[in-house]
Fold this protein.
Amino acid sequence: MKLKIAVISIISIIMITACYFVSVRVAYAKSVIEARKYQLQGDFSKAAQCYQKALLKDPQNFEIYKELAEIYRFQDNKTELKSIFEKGIKICPNDKWFLIHSAGLAIDEKDYGKAEIYLKKAIELGKTNGKLLFLLGRVLQEQDKNPEALNTFQEAIKSGYSKSRCYYNMACIYEYGFKNYSGAVKYYNLYTEATGDKGNNISKKMENYSLWMVGQSLEDEGRYKEAAVEYEKKLAENPGNLALMSRLGRAYRKSNNFPESEKIYIKALNIHKNNYYILNNLGSLYYEIERYNDAEACWSDAIKQAPEKPNAHYNIAALYTKKGKYADAEKEYLKAKKLGYSEGLVYLQLSYLNEKYLKNQAKANDYRNKFVNSPDYPEIKKTILKTGDQSSPGKNIQNLPEKNTTGTNEENHTSTEQQVTGAAVNTPQEQSDE
């Protein structure tokens, strides 16, 4: 009798379990069918809801993650997309499509370390892909892993990817990363040969390189007086050259020869009427010698000439802080960030501004957290540790390279393998006319 009861119990358990799994599969199938119906109707929000229900029934079904990823990509819903990619990669870590698009999303968020991991994994999984190698090179370049980036661009060329794009980025690494101008000239020339366009902006840039390359190298070594002599020599041969006048003014300023610096900047403005770069740099000179009203006038004029460029906005914000115009300072810092200035530096200054002057500790803490989470935080932190400078207003008027609105000197990442020509220019340097 006991045996009979045990057998009946086991059979009952099996039947209940079977019924449960059948009901689960039916519910799963129903959700998937409904999701695909909504997809065909173009109602992607309802389709996503149905797929999410299906995942609750079958959380290991990788195909559902793919369907959801496509929907969220179409909707440009990056929050949900990131979640789906992260969960999907845990289930199927070797899916190349997920890895590539996860890398693209990480790039959009400037999380280049994570993008590097995904791209390297995707490249390991399949046939060598020139586009992926190029994208990996760009990600390495953004992290200042320049030697590895150069090797990766070479591999991309061997794999048949665009020589012009690779050569351009390699030239930028030599110019801005290594400050090796002869190396930059070599790869810019290769870029020009690859494009076949001898009349492009790069060709014109190469013509100017020979004028200021030696002086720039001397400046990079801190030999500003010698750099000024070199620029003077070249300017005598090329009177009125804007790049030389801009650099000569800077070399004078950095060697504390302020009268000569002012003189050359004013001469440049007489020749090149209301030039943004000269106005901005002259403002920096006036700020340094505490002629604050003149500095404000220069930066205001620079902003009128080119409101889309960030440096003058950042500089005038520091001046407004100095003058006690704190609300105006905050607005200008935020404009500078929006236009492409180093967000880490902006958030650091805003934190200082709110803590010391506006007495808004909550906002100061918020900006401090944004600073710590900014992509350029490691480099700024390194500078602070080295110099002890906690970035009080005015200490960071350093004229970072402007964000190039034409795309010729800066590349924007996209979330797919398709890329545009150019390279990011992130190394702090004085402005010139380029």
Residues 384 and 390 are 6 Å apart (CA to CA). Residues 12-27, 393-434 have pLDDT under 50 and may be disordered.
